[in-house]
Amino acid sequence: MNPFDLTGKLAVVTGARRGIGRAMALALAEAGADIIGVSANLEPGSGIEKEVTALGRSFEAIRLDFADQDAVLALGRDLAARTRPVDILVNNAGTIRRAPAAEHPEADWNLVLQVNLTAQFALAQAVGAGMVERGHGKIIFTASLLSFQGGITVPGYTAAKHGVAGLTKALSNEWAARGVNVNAIAPGYIATDNTQALQDDPVRSAAILDRIPAGRWGRAEDLAGATVFLASAASNYVNGVVLPVDGGWLGR
């Protein structure tokens, strides 16, 4: 049997409309999974839906504002109550706000912590409870290089991503023996909308590129292999790991 085969599995991918989330959803579909895509601006008939259904997999689009905790909790209850259980949860949705720490707006701090950490826990709790009861399941968080480092002008994002790394380990400690694998992927500097400000800054962009041993910015599709691995039976003895996919940045 192919341990990477996800045929018949149902995966929920948040932040699935574009960037890393889109690449993750497509990778899981290519491995055989049906997809529930969740995003703030995801509409039926979106590009990712067309790509997934072209592979012969089903796709359900759910539009959700992750800043609305009541809506997040409602989604968790909905997913937990469905007849077809969720086999894979990819907690990827996120946002970033940039401002020097001394003048960082409280509203930006609260928004980033809500979207990037509190909402992630709420969905993991709701869906993970069913996984624990059934004795199997895969949860993947999107962490960050800033789960390990401090960053510049992004205190809320850094705090949230450190929290994601800690949450990954905390849930794994409780659920690994119950057949639920909880892990995270820490993308390096990936060319997406979230890093556009850095790409557009010639000084920062050059400094970043100079440190990456692979010699290039990452692409969203570079996350595909790690996603399928952590979602599949190939990772059944992998628990509580924050896996960097960073072109060698952290090893520098």
| CATH class identity | Alpha Beta
- Percentage of residues in helical conformation: 40-55%
CATH hierarchy: architecture = 3-Layer(aba) Sandwich
- Total number of strands: 7
Helix tally equals: 8
Number of domains: 1
User: What proportion of the residues form beta strands (DSSP E)?
Assistant: 15-25%
Uncertain segments of ≥5 residues (pLDDT<50)?
A: none
- CATH H-tier superfamily: NAD(P)-binding Rossmann-like Domain
CATH topology: Rossmann fold
Folded structure, characterized:
With 252 residues, the protein is of the alpha/beta class. 42% of the residues lie in helices and 15% in strands. Strands 3-2-1-4-5-6-7 form a seven-stranded parallel sheet, with helices on both faces. The chain is globular, with a radius of gyration of 17 Å.
List keywords for this structure.
252 residues; alpha/beta; Rossmann fold; 7-stranded parallel sheet; 8 helices; 42% helix
Short précis:
The chain has 252 residues and is α/β, with parallel strands linked by helices. Helix content is 42%, strand content 15%.
Q: What topology does this entry show?
A:
Elements: E1 10-14, H1 19-30, E2 34-39, H2 47-54, E3 59-63, H3 69-81, E4 88-91, H4 106-134, E5 137-142, H5 155-175, E6 180-187, H6 196-200, H7 202-211, H8 224-231, E7 242-245
Parallel strand pairs: 1-2, 1-4, 2-3, 4-5, 5-6, 6-7
Helix pairs in contact: 1-8, 3-4, 4-5
